[in-house]
């Protein structure tokens, strides 16, 4: 593995024409002892930025910190090969609105919605059940288990009927996965004999809950353990949503998943997949419709702040062939190739960032970072705030005009995203560094 200065210098030369700021380079030094998958993710992010025509001066200190510090702590190798636990309320609120008013499919009778890979706790599925109150909503995730163990700090682990660990969450980074697993196992073994007729027992060290999913279920919401290819639904579904899952897998896995979902859907039903972040920021998703027993891609859509994001999310994927990330990068590249759009967008975005006090452009022309005293929740919502303001100033409509001028069939969809007829993007160029 190359030394950190060597690899950062090579990234700077290969993807940024040696124009990254010294401060950004310093933030990337967090990759010094990073795992191979963390360095590969960073390299992939830089290649996507190049496709998207992101100027080196627009790589903010915040994004650089996320790549240098957060990436090594969120790739699967940091979680013993598991997909990191990232779930939050409100994440899919735009997609809930999309389903409610979508132009592609209307259920006959009671609609059936499946949230595949919804995570635990099932915040997004609970949101959907509230928004689609007259639908039957089913949350599905392999993390769901018969037993939930919580320690004194609120970290948790899920165990199945045979007391096998299915999943655990212990914060944003776990320096000792084996020790954490042993600690949760010890709590289970100690508390389980006390779990007789009651469904919950605890002491000063932790709590054990039997059938924890029942806590979250409501009249129109049910939760079922399972994953892609491991779930059956008699009668089928009108909509299956699978967000923030495919970014961890390669395209052959995606093809197999789509084949399986086809059998799960009712005629005319929809499959919505892609990725997003807090309050539906950094959205990029594809909508498929079941037609003649096959899935047909009908819409690809992105949120407008992706045209110059301050988040890591639009660049995060474990494989080069992630369809939504590639399609997003090429869409943004088309937008930023238009000089008028780029000038107007960058001027207004810089002014908005200054107003928020985040990623403010310095006298040297480079974007800064986030204030150290800014609450994490406020920082996480900045991109969603930017998306709303940019849309309010007409940039979604301007983006649609630019894409149409470039020959794309584009429109503003009913949730305010830049939508277009899907086109398979070119493959991502191979790494010039790794």
Automatic annotation (TrEMBL):
InterPro entries on file: SAM-dependent_MTases_sf (IPR029063)
Keywords: Methyltransferase, Transferase
Gene3D superfamilies reported for this sequence: Vaccinia Virus protein VP39 (3.40.50.150)
Any GO MF annotation of the entry: methyltransferase activity
GO terms for biological process, alphabetical: methylation
Protein name per the record: CheR methyltransferase-like protein
